[in-house]
């Protein structure tokens, strides 16, 4: 074989050796032959070297691509995020089992975030979303203590209603103007204001003014809204820094991408880092304000005077409202430990990390869900009429909205929100790391360390579970609409074939959304307050069909434009 002899001779030269090494390295990095072999039994779309399925993801949007792959390739398949395979699980029983079994988020998931975070990497890592082990348990307990327990949840209703009072006054001024309103942006202002009051007892000064522009917040609130918007925008694949696809394509070079993204940021990276720094700075200022108040209270007590939060304006700080921060609040739980348990007291960096998470999670997901509910009501007048009738019946005769009414007396309103979240869940898939080899049946064994991706959006659109899955039918979540009987529990409906694990917009298992009760309360209170006073119709400015996009969350791509009128 003269050709082989010449090749062997060539690779013994210095140039030939370099060529051989480069070829092996590129093959190894780009194709990962062993990895492809390990996943050979998993069906799925063909993945290009280096890029995997990134071109399809960019062209179709992540949610559309994952859902269509799950439908096409069955209950267990794989897709390639660059050079890494994600095992896509599209079977309710497997999703339930594995969401509960694996508490860890994939290590490479954190890498994707960290490319974008720059100097805020430590804060990102300390936040409950990416924290692991004991740090995760400790930080999660703080959220649980302040926004899941029924008593603490009920204590947040007055703050939500205060914000809604101001927000409906803003809409009332707007309703006379016949201008289109982007309700997604306006509700972002509202939810940020609510998160400020609920978590910190402060007024960010959101939702003032009365024009139709994207957001009416100014000052710190305006900067915070802009930062949060940039933060979510730069998490969308098409708006993200070029270092993100590089990280996905060449994960072995992660230290290089981290360094370069931090020291030689492109424009999108600069925007992402600036946005994250702003949110982190606000979280730090809130922590410092709390510390200063505490120190002042201690000093006042020592000198025999009154101290503590008094609801006033603080120089250079945020205005405190509703008596300032309460002892059962999120801030107090972070700073003093849950119910005073010193071992639960968070470090400064953890406090900033959780504050960051609270503001970001509370702002985007809940406002998107509520604006999508308004969109669906505007396009389904019979549902809007039924909701308005329920609200009128419950709040007739000038009755005030209360925590009890919200929890017990508004089943149709709750069904509207659940059906909105089924159709358009704010997060469309759950990711976990398999920390042991996992046998998924039919000879498909997922190697330890792999990423499991639970395709919850696909399950919530499965026609075998949800007849006519694209239809908006809140009745599915009421006893009258539960095919096969069942009714609905407060969170898990028994619609959808009586399987309690087929409705999962808040995820499930150990990493399930810790804000799910707060989100339901805030969305319900908002729908009730708005539909009591106003009617919403789509404005011609609203493109149809509605375009949704996946970034960190899944929501309206270009706002939700509506005309608001006062109800007669
Ligand atoms: C409609 C609104 C919301 C939706 C659809 C939503 C959805 C989700 C989903 C799907 C997850 C991942 C769950 C999993 O992996 O199993 C999650 C996690 C999380 N959510 Fe939410 N969420 C919403 C509102 C909120 C709010 C208001 C907060 C808090 C202020 C919040 C805080 C969190 C946190 C901290 C995590 C991470 C939990 C952990 O890793 O242990 N979410 N959310």
TrEMBL record:
<dbReference type="InterPro" id="IPR017972">
    <property type="entry name" value="Cyt_P450_CS"/>
</dbReference>
<keyword id="KW-0472">Membrane</keyword>
<dbReference type="GO" id="GO:0004497">
    <property type="term" value="F:monooxygenase activity"/>
</dbReference>
<feature type="binding site" description="axial binding residue">
    <location>
        <position position="513"/>
    </location>
    <ligand>
        <name>heme</name>
    </ligand>
</feature>
<dbReference type="GO" id="GO:0005506">
    <property type="term" value="F:iron ion binding"/>
</dbReference>
<dbReference type="InterPro" id="IPR001128">
    <property type="entry name" value="Cyt_P450"/>
</dbReference>
<keyword id="KW-1133">Transmembrane helix</keyword>
<keyword id="KW-0560">Oxidoreductase</keyword>
<dbReference type="InterPro" id="IPR002401">
    <property type="entry name" value="Cyt_P450_E_grp-I"/>
</dbReference>
<feature type="transmembrane region" description="Helical">
    <location>
        <begin position="6"/>
        <end position="31"/>
    </location>
</feature>
<dbReference type="Pfam" id="PF00067">
    <property type="entry name" value="p450"/>
</dbReference>
<keyword id="KW-0408">Iron</keyword>
<keyword id="KW-0812">Transmembrane</keyword>
<dbReference type="GO" id="GO:0016705">
    <property type="term" value="F:oxidoreductase activity, acting on paired donors, with incorporation or reduction of molecular oxygen"/>
</dbReference>
<dbReference type="GO" id="GO:0020037">
    <property type="term" value="F:heme binding"/>
</dbReference>
<keyword id="KW-0503">Monooxygenase</keyword>
<keyword id="KW-0349">Heme</keyword>
<protein>
    <recommendedName>
        <fullName>Cytochrome P450, CYP711 clan</fullName>
    </recommendedName>
</protein>
<keyword id="KW-0479">Metal-binding</keyword>
<dbReference type="InterPro" id="IPR036396">
    <property type="entry name" value="Cyt_P450_sf"/>
</dbReference>
<comment type="similarity">
    <text>Belongs to the cytochrome P450 family.</text>
</comment>
């Amino acid at each position: 074989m003269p050709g082989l002899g010449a090749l062997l001779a060539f690779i013994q030269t210095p140039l030939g050796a370099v060529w051989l090494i480069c070829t092996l390295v590129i093959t190894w990095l780009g194709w990962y032959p062993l990895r492809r072999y390990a996943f050979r039994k998993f069906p799925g779309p063909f993945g290009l070297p280096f890029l995997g399925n990134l071109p399809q993801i960019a062209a179709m949007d992540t949610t559309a691509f994952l859902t269509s792959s799950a439908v096409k390739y069955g209950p267990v398949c794989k897709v390639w995020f660059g050079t890494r395979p994600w095992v896509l699980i599209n079977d309710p029983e497997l999703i339930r089992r594995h969401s509960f079994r694996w508490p860890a988020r994939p290590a490479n998931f954190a890498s994707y975030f960290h490319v974008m975070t720059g100097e805020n990497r430590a804060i990102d890592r300390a936040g409950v979303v990416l924290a692991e082990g004991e740090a995760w348990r400790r930080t999660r307990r703080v959220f649980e203590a302040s926004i899941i327990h029924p008593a603490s949840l009920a204590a947040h209703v007055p703050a939500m209603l205060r914000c809604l009072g101001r927000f409906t006054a803003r809409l009332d001024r707007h309703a006379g103007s016949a201008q289109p309103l982007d309700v997604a942006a306006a509700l972002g202002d509202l939810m940020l204001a609510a998160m400020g009051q609920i978590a910190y007892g402060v007024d960010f000064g959101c939702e003032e003014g009365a024009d139709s522009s994207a957001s009416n917040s100014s000052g710190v609130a305006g900067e915070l809204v802009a930062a949060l918007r940039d933060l979510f925008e730069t998490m969308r694949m098409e708006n993200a820094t070029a270092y993100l696809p590089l990280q996905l394509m060449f994960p072995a070079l992660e230290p290089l991408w981290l360094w370069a993204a931090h020291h030689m940021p492109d424009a999108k990276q600069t925007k992402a880092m600036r946005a994250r720094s702003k949110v982190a700075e606000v979280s730090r200022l809130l922590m410092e304000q709390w510390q200063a108040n505490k120190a002042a209270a201690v000093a006042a007590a020592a000198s025999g005077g009154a101290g503590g939060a008094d609801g006033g304006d603080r120089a250079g700080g945020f205005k405190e409202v509703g008596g300032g921060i309460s002892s059962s609040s999120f801030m107090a739980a972070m700073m003093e430990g849950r119910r005073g348990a010193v071992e639960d007291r968070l470090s400064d960096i953890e406090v900033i990390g959780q504050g960051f998470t609270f503001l970001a999670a509370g702002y985007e997901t809940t406002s998107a869900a509520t604006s999508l509910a308004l969109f669906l009501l505007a396009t389904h007048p019979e549902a809007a009429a039924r909701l308005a009738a329920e609200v009128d019946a419950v709040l007739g005769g000038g009755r005030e909205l209360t925590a009890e009414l919200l929890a017990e007396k508004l089943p149709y309103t709750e069904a509207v929100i659940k059906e909105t979240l089924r159709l358009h869940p704010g997060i469309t898939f759950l990711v976990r790391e398999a920390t042991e080899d996992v046998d998924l049946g039919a000879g498909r064994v997922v190697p330890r360390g792999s990423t499991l991706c639970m395709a919850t959006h696909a399950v919530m659109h499965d026609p075998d579970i949800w007849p006519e899955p694209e239809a908006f039918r809140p009745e599915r979540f009421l006893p009258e609409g539960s095919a096969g009987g069942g009714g609905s529990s407060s969170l898990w409906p028994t619609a959808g074939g009586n399987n309690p694990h087929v409705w999962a917009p808040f995820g499930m298992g150990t990493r399930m959304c810790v804000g799910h009760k707060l989100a339901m309360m805030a969305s319900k209170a908002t729908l009730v307050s708005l539909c009591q006073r106003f009617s919403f119709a789509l404005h011609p400015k609203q493109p149809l069909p509605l375009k949704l996009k996946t970034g960190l969350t899944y929501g309206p791509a270009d706002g939700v434009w509506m005309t608001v009128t006062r109800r007669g």
